[in-house]
Amino acid sequence: MMNRLIAGGKHFFGLHPPGRNLRVFPDDVFLVSYPKSGNTWTRFLIANLVYPDKSPDFSNINDLVPDPEAMAKRDLERTARPRLLKSHQYFDPRYPKVIYIVRDPRDVVLSEYHFDIKRRAIPDDFPLAQFVARFIRGEVNHLSGTWFENAASWFYTRRGDPRFLLVKYESLQSQAMEEMERIASFLGIATDREQIAFAIAQSSADRMRELEKKQAHLWSSTRETRKDKPFIRSAKSGGWRVELPESSIAEIEGAWSGLMREMRYELSGSSLVGARRVHSGLEDL
Amino acid sequence: MIKHLMAGIQRGLGLHRPARGLLILPDDIFLVSFPKSGNTWTRFLLANLRFPEQPATFENINRLIPDPEGTAKRDFDRMPRPRIIKSHECFDPRYPRVVYIVRDPRDVVVSQYHYHRKLRKIEDDSPIEKFATRYLAGETCPHGSWGQNVATWLYTSEGSPRFLLLRYEDLLADTARELAKVVAFLNLTAGPELIAQAVERSSADNMRKLEKKQPDKNELMKGSRKDLSFIRAAGSGGWRKDLPAPVAARIEAAWGPLMQHLGYELSSPTPSETSQVPGVRSQENLMARLS
What we know:
The structure holds 2 protein chains of 2 kinds.
Chain A: H1 2-13, E1 29-33, H2 39-50, H3 61-64, H4 73-78, E2 84-87, E3 97-102, H5 105-118, H6 128-136, H7 147-158, E4 164-168, H8 169-174, H9 176-187, H10 193-202, H11 205-215, H12 240-243, H13 246-262
Parallel strand pairs in A: 1-2, 1-3, 3-4
Helix pairs in contact in A: 2-10, 6-13, 9-10
Chain B: H1 2-13, E1 29-33, H2 39-50, H3 61-64, H4 73-78, E2 84-87, E3 97-102, H5 105-118, H6 128-136, H7 146-157, E4 163-167, H8 168-173, H9 175-186, H10 192-201, H11 204-213, H12 239-242, H13 245-261, H14 280-290
Parallel strand pairs in B: 1-2, 1-3, 3-4
Helix pairs in contact in B: 2-10, 6-13, 9-10, 13-14
């Protein structure tokens, strides 16, 4: 009862994070991705492009590109418009403009594994293969769905829509300038290559590592996590080839081959050996 | 300010409608569809099956098979489990088990057009062509467009053992047979007699009678025009008569591949690839895979 009254009071003052109940404005732009797919990096890239005078870092990124899961309703409604918002939500028909970042699920699971160790969700020695199985079943990020569900729910509803921009994490790494030009033009920002180059430099993995060292205690996603493990880890793609067990690669590819192919993620072929299909829906037709 | 305070007190007492904040339990069952796709009928069918001791009416249906947008949180917490819950939401990974009802989008647009007239959301003589444009863009309700709503569920969940797809048209053609599928999916204990009773109690005639007796007992029609009924044709294929051919063609151009996948025959030769509807290009690949 007491808890309920406190929740009621919090609601009254707008101090609760609204999450999926966020009030959406028609000029909102959402930066959406599955967790551990480069969302924070893209947040920095865009914040450095749009608000270069604010010197984006871990102390103010939540104000510049707010997260409805972490920020109070009141603050979200006070954010200057048009708002740029971070999200890990599966398809939401209310989001007007969406930049969707997709990353190879074989790298996503590795990143999530290390992050979950950092945030003490699993112990240091938790078996990776077991973690991958949980990841595929959607038990790791229950509120975002599985990697497949999250990406499919956006991709198959919005692809081709002029208000939807699909960005691959891997392309952002290999050709940051070109991808950032696409993003700038999608956002309708007048910018030049110099400004983009500045934003890219300000958001480099090295610089973000430096910032993390100084500011990990200032940011909601790192505040209460282990200090001996970094948030900015390898910041690379393809690590799965070395780190993931063969059987785990096969499991992921077996479960999500249709969408992975659609996203041009080359399959290693190991999925043909003893892989189990999770869904035999439309993607397999 | 006062409004905020009231909302806070309501929340403290559990009188607010939980909407997306609904606490989902692991044995919950969701009855999901795009609006105007037979959700209310199926709700009655399942309520009459699950609670045979009290025939479903427009007055008690919000308690028997509650709606997170229309039923108080307190009532949700008091329900016997497993709960069967109504929803029009697009894909939600938290839903443990889902019965998804799909209906021919050409009939859905006609149904929604008349429903919006009844709710006074549109003028009586507003052209259906204009309504269809908003319908295709997903602007007639807060649950996405028909194509988006259906796509989010089919692409993510079709083939999953936790997902049962029902076509409204099949429900009409053989209600008892389709209901038996639901019984098996939900592990309910219901023999042919109970199923027959649920079908009878949820017939269009009976629901029309209930609507006449209780025209204001449900959020679905509270304050709406009484000269138009909520239970309308309760049939399928009405679009062939009621929908101008160009409107049907636009719907087919937008969602043709999905419609074909669901077994809805197209009236125009092939979906146009030059349509202006958002999301159309997203269907091209699907089409390639379907052909």
